[in-house]
Structure formats: C-alpha cells, structure tokens
C-alpha cells in the first residue's frame, strides 16, 4: 500500500505540474499575440501639419503640401539644376525650445533638427496619452525611432571650436532615440533604426515585439527625416526619379516619380490589456506585423514583388487573420511607375485574390498629400488611418488621372481610392494594412485595427484603496482648482490661451472637475505656476483668460515675483468651536472624498470610547459635548487629505486635542490610537477629576511609532515622543506648543476661513494654491478628484517656445 500511495501522490504532483505548464504555455502564447494599443500620436509634417488633427484636415480636404524650396536653410543650389525646386517641407524645422530640455544654445545649434523635434514630439505624445511625463522617469519605457538623412553637418569643411564637443552626438543617429530616453529618464531599450524608407514601420514592428516580450511596458515609436541640405534632391535627380511637379501621383497613369518631403512622427504604444487597466486612451490596436528583405533580386534598390507578397502574408499570419478580414491598405505608393505597379501586383496576389466584388480592398497613400517623407512615412500612414477610424471615412488619394495601366487591376478585388469612401462600423472590426518598402531592400507590413469598445472602468475601491464614497462630479458650488505650470512665464500664458481655445471648441465641453483632475494627473509640475479657482466653468474660464492676458483676477493665484518657498508648519490649536468646526467639516466633507472617508472612519473609531458618540449628522445636530471629538475628527481628516496631496510640512504643532492630531499627522499615532487618546479628554472630563491611573488602560494599548515629521513636543526634554510617559504627561498636564518662527508659512485648520462668506473648501484650495505657486509641493489629484471613477480628458499639450537654431547662422556669425 505504501508504494501505491507514493504512486498516487506522484501522479497528483505530475498532473498538477502538467496543468501549470499548460497554463504557462497558454499565457506565453497569449502574450506573443496580444494586440498593441496605440495610446497617442504626435507629428510635424509638411503643410503646417503640427498634430494628427492637422493631418486629417490635410487629407480630408484633399490638399497637398508642395511648396518651393525653403528660403531659411541657406541652401546652395546650382544654377543649372536639372530638377524643379519643389518639395514638401516643415515650416519651422529650425525651431526648438532648448531651455525646456536644459540644453544650452551652443549645444542646440550643434544638434540636428531631427533630434530636437523628436524631443518635442516625445513630450507631446506622453501628454496626449494622459500620462504626466515626469512619472515615466526610471520606468521600463522603450524608444524605437527610425532615423534617416543625417546631413546637418555635411556642409561644414571646418567647425568652430565651440561646436566640436557637441557635433558628434548632435548628428548621431543613435542619439535620436538616446536623447529622448535621457531627457525623460527612460530605462527601457532605446534603439535607432535606419532602413531608409521603411525605417519608422520597422521601428514600430520592433517596439511591438519588445512590448509583447516584456522588455518594456510602454514604447515611443516612429521616425523621421529632416533635409538640412538639398543633397537628397541631387541624388534622386541623377536617378531620374523625381516628379516634375514635386507631387507623388500614387498608382496613377500620370505617375512620373517621387515628390520628396520630410517630417517626424511618434506614437505611444502599450499592451492592450495594460492600456485598458491603466485608463489610457486606445486609439487603435496593432494586430500583427512583419519585416523581411528583398535579398538578391533585380538590383539593390529595385522593388521585389515576391518579397512584398511574403511580408504581407507574414503580417497576416502574425495577426492571425485572413486577407479578406482587412478592408484597406495604406500603401507605400511613392509614384514611381514601375515601383507602384509591382506593389499593386503584390496586393492583388495577397489581399485581392478571391475577394468578393462587394468588398474590395481599398488602396490609398498619404504620400499624395505629404510627399515621400522618408523616415516618417510609415508613422504618417498609421496616423492617417487612426484618424480614418475616428471619422469613419477612407480619404481619397490625390493626383490620380486614372489607375496605372502597368498593373493588372482586373485580376483581383483591389480598387484605388480616387474618391473618399464611407467606412461605417460593422460587427467585425475594421482593419487596414500599412506597407513600407525601402531602397535598402527591407520591407515592412503592419495590420492596424480599430479600437475595441470602451470597457467598464475597474472597481473604484480597488483603484483608490481609501474607502472613498462615490460622489457626483457636478456637485453644485464645489470649488475646483485648475493647476497650470510651465518652464517660462511666456509659456504659462500660452498654455492658458491654448486651454481657453480648446475648451471653447470642445463639443461636448468637459466637466470642469474632469479638467482639474486631468491637469493634476497628466501634466508635470514645472517652475512657473498658476492656479485658477472657481465653482463653475464661467468663473474658471474668466480666470484663465486673465492669466493669458497677464491680468489680475480674484480666481487667479499666480507665481509671486522672485518667490522663495518658506518652510511650512501645520498648527492644530485653539479652543474647540462647535459652530465653526461643524461648518468647516460640512464644507470639506462635501468637497473632498478623501476628507469624507477619513472623517467617517474617525467618527466610527471614536464611537466606542465616547459616552455621547457623534451623531449620524455630526455637522447639523452636534451638541456642546461633541465639540472636542468633532474638532479632532475634522482636523485628523484634514491632515490625511493634506498628506494625500503630497503636502509635507517641515514642522507640525498642536495644543490640546490638536497635539494628538499633530502626532497622528507625524506618524507617531495610528488613527485608531489617536481616536482613543482624543476620546480620553472628553471621557475623563465627564467622569470627574482624572486620577494618575485614569489613562493607564488607554496608554497600554498604544502602538507608538517614531515620528516621520518634526513634531514640536510639549513634555520635558528627556521624555521621548513615542513613549506612554510622554502621552501621560500630555493628557494630565497639557502645555501650549511654542509658536512657529516667522520664517515659516503656517497652515492653521482652525483659521481656514476667517470670512464667513468664504467656504472652507475654497479657503483651503486658496491656501494650497499660494503654497504651490510659491514653490511648494502640492499633488492636486486627491484635492480635485471628481468621483470614485475619475476620467481624464484630452487637453492641449505643452506650448513649446521655439527659438531658431541653425548651423549656418552660427558659423556665419563665428566667421564675422
């Protein structure tokens, strides 16, 4: 029997191990195929396209971005150039807010525009993802950037001595990703990719793989090219591959070559499950992707049709989809006749074969609008199609007289988007393929899918961990604080201007409390600060307009001139005032969920120790015997609210029951123990004159701990704060705490609202606004949280204050 028992135990153990192994395999397979969420997007593209919304305006209105050569880059052009001086350019490639990133003027001049613009986009992309950039420091956030065309310093025969320390890194492709990681303090992989025209789509592919493997939790991915010289035009002109009018006529019979362009684009990526759990926007999902090589074909730079077919099939396999489950392809489509024809044939052989006539594959290319923007091409295609999901429209491809006759269009269900087509939602998700084929021979294809329906928010108690009660975001007369900050006063005013414009255009307008919460949780606190206070949108907008105009307003608390933060003291003192404490408590209880949760907890903990417990409505029906317990509960709740808001005083003081609150704030007493001690003033007084042994039962139960804040003691110097003897002395011989020095800012809860017409919540927010704008630390999130399930909303990104930095300007000045 012993052997049989051992065999049974062994089989049980083996079965359990098998189940565990199978579960691990299922989890690994799910992780390998988990969709990747596109959380946010940022771009600078030709045609004054400074945002994804600008790009949608460009494509939906059927405009292109072709202009003459830029006149601000000191391009030295030969008189007999054999190509038209036309292209697609950024309107301010030289502009950069160097001070924002703590980069000196000399280093900024020596740093190529691609690196500089990518810093702007990285900050914007994180903010658009409803994430405060400073919170990513030291996190496993990756950076994958396709970076091509590093010609910024090629015009120099010699460089000024002051630039030499910076030119190497400033023009290095590796630092396009590395500088982003450095500026934001990111510790995930930082990888720059150069596969020519497919660079940004390859970067996106690598980022998705890293996210699925757990190498990073978030990833910034994209790419770009800035043409600092006309060298690229010279090279393609000699290849006879430039369009006469600078326009890409993608898949058209009239196609006569590329229209060259430049641009930069970044997207923020996260595993879909993580994005949903974290409450981040999900604009689209990447279902699958693939990369391959042309290998030895017809020529190094010649497109290879079979390789294009293979990379499409590999991406579909990675996405676990059939070809007819994809509605459209945003193609490479540079407008070279042979290249376009080969691409169409590859699409006909993959997506088009056997497709029903009522569901053709729609074909288009953003290059007809922006030109071939090289390292940014794949990212621009992705941004365009995310916007197409949002607007339920496939926009038309420009400059098509008729589809190219070099492709056999009748051999499959592929149709060119010569007009915009409605793209309605249906039961199965809408999907699009993105293609990028490069002169390097590296091909990439990616399957993009519309976002899933929004999920129900996670259980709020789990998210908060505070026991807060739910409350309506639109509570009448609840004060709201909008905290703005910037690196300079000019940027602060610009931010206010942008916020006013954004809210005026929003339809529907977000709730003011949601705006407050979003400012508090998705923006980083910077040096120059202002807090706007009000109870409704009209009040807050009026204060915001005043800030934008540099004017005063009663609801505006701004950065004082030459403000130097003072040390902060919390003082919990003064005799209990039943009417004042009830009024203050009622107002704070209605305004701040964290205050309400702590007050209610304290009331419940006090109840067993009081002969007359605080009533269910402690603010409206409290009696004189409730004065001390009420004051204690109000001040203890305020202390936790302030600590939750990151307000850490240099010193805490208190008198009487206020000293017990001060000890609770300093971490010496738990809330339970503080309630026991507070109830012992009251209980002893009601029972007559206390004896030396009156407090012994309470003191024996205390769990005393070392102070985490400086607590001004009121006992003899040789009596430790965290000792029963100290608290016995305090209960039997209470003494007044010494007043704080004049160099301290004093926050006294007992004097929150000396003006009866000013509610306590408004007075508290005003006091904290002054602390915040004076250089103190305030985390506004628990102060402005509108509900148990708060929602962040889109807000304008940081208004960078760009200054022109261009190498030619600097070298000219140096020569002079």
Keywords:
816 residues, alpha/beta, eleven-stranded mixed beta sheet, four-stranded parallel beta sheet, 24 strands, elongated
Descriptive report:
With 816 residues, this protein is α/β, with parallel strands linked by helices. The chain has 27 helices and 24 strands. 39% of the residues lie in helices and 15% in strands. The strands form six sheets. An eleven-stranded mixed β-sheet has the order 6-5-7-8-1-9-16-15-10-11-13, with helices on both faces. The protein has a four-stranded parallel β-sheet with strand order 22-21-20-23, covered by helices on one side. Helix 2 packs across helix 13. The longest helix has 32 residues. The radius of gyration is 33 Å and the shape is elongated. The termini are far apart. About 2% of the residues have low confidence.
Question: What's this entry about, in short?
Answer:
The protein has 816 residues and is of the alpha/beta class. 39% of the residues lie in helices and 15% in strands.
């Amino acid at each position: 029997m012993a052997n049989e028992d051992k065999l049974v135990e062994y089989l049980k153990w083996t079965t359990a191990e098998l189940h565990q192994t199978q579960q691990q395999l299922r989890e690994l397979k799910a992780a390998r195929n988990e969709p990747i969420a596109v959380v946010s997007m940022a771009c600078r593209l030709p045609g004054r396209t400074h945002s994804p919304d600008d790009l949608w305006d460009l494509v939906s209105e059927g405009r292109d971005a072709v202009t003459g050569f830029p006149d601000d880059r000191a391009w030295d052009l030969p008189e007999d150039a054999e190509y038209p001086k036309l292209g697609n350019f950024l309107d301010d490639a030289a502009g950069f807010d160097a001070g924002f990133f703590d980069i000196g003027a000399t280093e900024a001049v020596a740093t190529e525009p691609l690196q500089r613009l990518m810093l702007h986009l990285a900050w914007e992309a994180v903010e658009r993802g409803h994430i405060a950039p400073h919170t990513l420091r030291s996190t496993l956030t990756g950076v994958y950037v396709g970076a091509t065309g590093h010609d910024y310093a090629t015009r120099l025969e010699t460089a000024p001595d002051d630039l030499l320390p910076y030119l190497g890194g400033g023009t290095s492709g590796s630092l396009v990703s590395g500088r982003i990681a450095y500026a934001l303090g990111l510790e995930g992989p930082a990888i720059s990719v150069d596969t020519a025209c497919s660079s940004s789509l390859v970067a996106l592919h690598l980022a998705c793989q890293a996210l699925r493997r757990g190498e990073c939790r978030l990833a910034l991915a994209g790419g770009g090219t800035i043409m600092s010289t006309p060298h690229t035009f010279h090279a393609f002109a000699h290849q006879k591959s430039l369009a006469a009018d600078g326009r890409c006529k993608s898949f058209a019979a009239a196609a006569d070559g590329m229209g060259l362009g430049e641009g930069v684009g970044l997207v923020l990526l996260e595993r879909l499950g993580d994005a949903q759990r974290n409450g981040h926007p999900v604009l689209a999902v990447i279902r699958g992707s693939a990369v391959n090589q042309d290998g030895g074909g017809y020529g190094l730079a010649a497109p290879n049709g079979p390789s294009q077919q293979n990379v499409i099939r590999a991406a579909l396999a990675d996405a676990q989809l059939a070809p007819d489950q994809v509605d459209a392809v945003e193609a490479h489509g540079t407008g070279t006749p042979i290249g376009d024809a080969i691409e169409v044939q590859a699409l006909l052989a993959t997506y088009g074969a056997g497709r029903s006539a009522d569901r053709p594959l729609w074909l288009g290319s953003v290059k007809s609008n922006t030109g071939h923007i090289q390292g940014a091409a794949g990212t621009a295609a992705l941004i365009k199609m995310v916007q197409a999901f949002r607007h339920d429209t496939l926009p038309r491809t420009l400059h098509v007289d008729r589809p190219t006759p070099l492709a056999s269009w009748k051999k499959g269900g592929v149709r060119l988007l010569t007009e915009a087509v409605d793209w309605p939602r249906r039961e199965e998700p809408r999907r699009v393929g993105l293609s990028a084929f490069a002169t390097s021979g590296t091909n990439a294809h990616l399957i993009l899918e519309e976002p899933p329906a929004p999920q129900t928010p996670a259980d709020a108690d789990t998210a908060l961990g505070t026991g807060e009660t739910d409350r309506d975001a639109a509570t009448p007369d609840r004060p709201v604080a909008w905290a703005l900050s910037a690196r300079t006063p000019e940027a602060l005013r610009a931010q206010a201007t942008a916020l006013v414009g954004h809210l005026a255009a929003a339809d529907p307008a977000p709730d003011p409390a949601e705006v407050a919460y979003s400012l508090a949780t998705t923006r980083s606190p910077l040096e120059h600060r202002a807090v706007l206070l009000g109870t409704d949108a009209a009040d807050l907008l009026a204060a915001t307009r005043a800030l934008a105009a540099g004017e005063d307003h009663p609801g505006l608390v701004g950065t004082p001139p030459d403000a130097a933060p003072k040390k902060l003291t919390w003082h919990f003192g003064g005799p209990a005032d039943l009417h004042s404490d009830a009024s203050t408590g009622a107002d704070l209880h209605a305004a701040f969920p964290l205050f309400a949760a702590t007050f209610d907890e304290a009331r419940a903990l006090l109840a067993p120790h009081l002969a007359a417990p605080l009533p269910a409505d402690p603010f409206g029906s409290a009696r004189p015997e409730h004065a001390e317990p009420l004051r204690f509960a109000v001040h203890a709740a305020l202390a936790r609210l302030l600590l939750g808001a990151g307000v850490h005083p240099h010193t805490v003081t208190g008198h009487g029951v206020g000293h017990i609150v001060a000890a609770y704030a300093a971490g010496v007493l738990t809330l339970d123990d503080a309630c026991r001690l507070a109830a012992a003033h009251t209980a002893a007084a009601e029972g007559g004159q206390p004896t030396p042994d009156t407090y012994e039962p309470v003191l024996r139960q205390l769990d005393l701990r070392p102070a985490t804040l400086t607590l001004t003691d009121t006992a003899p110097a040789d009596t430790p704060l965290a000792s029963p003897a100290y608290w016995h002395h305090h209960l039997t011989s209470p003494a007044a705490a010494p007043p704080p020095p004049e160099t301290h800012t004093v926050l006294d809860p007992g004097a929150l609202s000396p003006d009866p017409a000013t509610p306590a919540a408004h007075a508290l927010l005003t006091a904290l606004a002054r602390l915040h704008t004076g250089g103190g630390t305030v985390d506004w999130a628990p102060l402005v949280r509108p509900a148990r399930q708060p929602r962040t909303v889109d807000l304008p990104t940081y208004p960078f204050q760009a200054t022109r930095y261009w190498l030619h300007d600097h070298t000219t000045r140096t020569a002079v």
